[in-house]
Amino acid sequence: MKNRVLILTAASLLLALLLGQLNHYLAAWQIHVWCGGLFVTFAALRLSYGTGAAAVFAAGLLLDAGDPVTFGTQGFIFLAAHAVIFNIRARAPRDETVVGVVIALLANLGMFLALSFLRIDPVVEPARSWMRAFADLLVSQIALALIAPWFFSVQTRLLELTGNPLRDLSRRAY
Amino acid sequence: MLPQRFDQAKPFATLGIVLLAWLLIPTAVKRFARAGFFELQAPMETAASYVRDIQGYWALKTRTKDELIEAGRDLVRLNAAYESRLQQDASVRTELERLERILRLPTPAGFRAEPARVVRRDFSSWWQQLVIRKGRNYGITVGSPVIYAGGVVGRVTEVHAYTSVVELIGSPGVRIAATTEGDTRPISYQGAVNPTYGPAFGTVEYVPLDVFVTATNPQRLVTSGLGGVFPPNLTIGYMTRVEPSSDGLFKSGEVRLDAALSSLNEVTVLVPEAKDTGAR
Question: Given this model, what pLDDT does residue A35 score?
């Protein structure tokens, strides 16, 4: 379990770094990509509850460390999203990449809105702030749909390369 | 085997327990964990910024000699202009010190300018911040003002071992005491919204009723120096619209910020120097 958590945290670190670089360049156009759904989906769909929860919580804390939010905010948003996806995963063909992408998009939508409600000041120009948030959300969803298959594949290969294949877990609930 | 209903509730029960445990963890532990997670990522981001600098260097190497000669000539002209300004500054400073001695005024604390490269720009609808490549290793302190050629960038909110985090003036949480150019009456500036594909803007409150601005005739908003964080007369932005506020005593309006804030590569941190406590 510990190995899997570390490997998925390393993958999250890589994704956070790449998204940080993407956002650095997009800042010139005042666009921001936030792909929280990607940090959660694979762990929630393919891993046991404990391993997945630990990995997504670590990923959330990783993001929290660099963002001006209370430490743990994104960690708990990720953990809540993980709990929801984990509960419904038995009803979906969760090994399919397309299903993973769709769930990642829905999770990203929900978490983005949750974070927006927490962060956007309802007093200072709320209408314009939400317009900007929706523009960011649109770009984020497009970026997530493009990145997700690659990132799921990276996570699967990393687990295989380190001797932690998924096959033995794919149909087990806990 | 556990009943199915409990199985389904287990993730949420675990979430609740973790949340409760998290609330009970001492703040010092959380602060340590946060610093640890930040420092884990910092070397990778800094390395990426060095790679960008190398890319820039090689891109510049492709320039022709004629372009370099032209740039050198422009620099000589700029240097000459700055030399002249420095001489004027020196005479103004001497005069200021003389007046301070006569009036026995306390000398305000100075600043040490610390230029720093930008590691990462992070501009979302939730926050606007930069990570710069200098931290405790260069004596940067929390709250230090950060400027660039066009005026105020923001202030340092976090200082780490080799990097610092700067909150931009466009960020909704930032408030600065300001004045209009050539005026001394204080105005409250606050960061507001950063629309996509356009420059960020802020809002102003407590603008005196006799201040009139339009989009075609904007007025420069500068720092007032009140509060002691920012030195006076640094450009914040341009007021493009003001209208009477609901109380009728003041006006409130919008400030357009420089579009260059979105693509900064280098900034200067003004690190406050210790006050001279020696008797005059």
Answer: 94
Interior angle at CA A68, CA A65 and CA A74, nearest 5: 60
Q: What are the Cα distances from residue B255, in Å, to B108, B126, B200, B247?
A: 28, 19, 9, 20
Closest CA of chain A from B247, distance in Å: 17
The whole-angstrom separation of Cα B157 and Cα B144 is 8
How many cross-chain Cβ pairs, A to B, lie less than 8 Å apart?
A: 146
- Min Cα distance A163 → chain B (Å) is 25
Estimate to the nearest angstrom the gap between the alpha carbon of B92 and the chain centroid.
27
Average pLDDT, chain B: 88
Predicted TM-score (pTM) of the model is 0.86
pLDDT attached to residue A7: 93
Ramachandran bin of B87, using left for φ above 0, alpha for ψ from -120 to 50, beta for the remaining angles: alpha
Residue B194 pLDDT: 81
Q: Which residue of B has its CA nearest to A31?
A: B196
Element (H, E) at B266: strand B266-272
C-alpha distance from B91 to closest chain A C-alpha (Å) = 40
- State whether residue B188 is helix, strand or coil: strand
Contact A111, A78 (CB under 8 A): yes
Contact criterion met (CB < 8 Å) for B38 and A124? no
Radius of gyration of chain A (CA): 16
B262 interface with A at CB cutoff 8 Å:
yes
Measure the CA–CA gap between B167 and B220, rounded to whole angstroms.
22
Chain B residues inside the 8 Å CB shell of A119: 125-127
Contact list, B41 vs chain A (CB under 8 Å): 13, 16-17, 62, 65-66
Per residue in B99-143, pLDDT (tens digit) is: 988 988 877 778 889 999 999 999 988 889 999 999 999 999 999
User: Tens of pLDDT along A151-161?
Assistant: 999 999 999 99
pLDDT recorded at residue B5: 59
Assembly ipTM: 0.87
